[in-house]
Amino acid sequence: MILLRRLLGDVLRRQRQRQGRTLREVSASARVSLGYLSEVERGQKEASSELLSAICDALDVPMSEVMREVSDELSLAELAQSAASENTAPVRLEPVPVAPEDRVSLKSANKAVDVVAA
């Protein structure tokens, strides 16, 4: 079974780790307990929209970017699950990390938006 809270936690953890930040730093900035943030990242707790917004603000990452990454991972997980249920050899699909030099920064509504160069 695919659990959305696990996918969301994985994405939030990767975003935090890409920035080289600790759970303590992000939890303080988001004003959420360190333990609760840890449980969200591990997919043990379901994040409310308010909590998710606070975490995204603390990470300085648009919520739409986080949700897009979660959506991409959900699609991959569904494909893998479908392949497994068809008694075919499942294909392991993983998101491709994008190097900072492959991103283009655009200014929109006073916010920088990263776009992956094709």
TrEMBL record:
SUPFAM superfamilies: lambda repressor-like DNA-binding domains (SSF47413). Pfam families: HTH_3. CDD domains: HTH_XRE (cd00093). Keywords: DNA-binding. Residues 12-66 form the HTH cro/C1-type domain. SMART domains: HTH_XRE (SM00530). PROSITE patterns: HTH_CROC1 (PS50943). InterPro entries: Cro/C1-type_HTH, Lambda_DNA-bd_dom_sf, TransReg_Diox_bact_type. It comes from the Bacteria. This is Helix-turn-helix transcriptional regulator. It comes from Streptomyces thermolineatus.
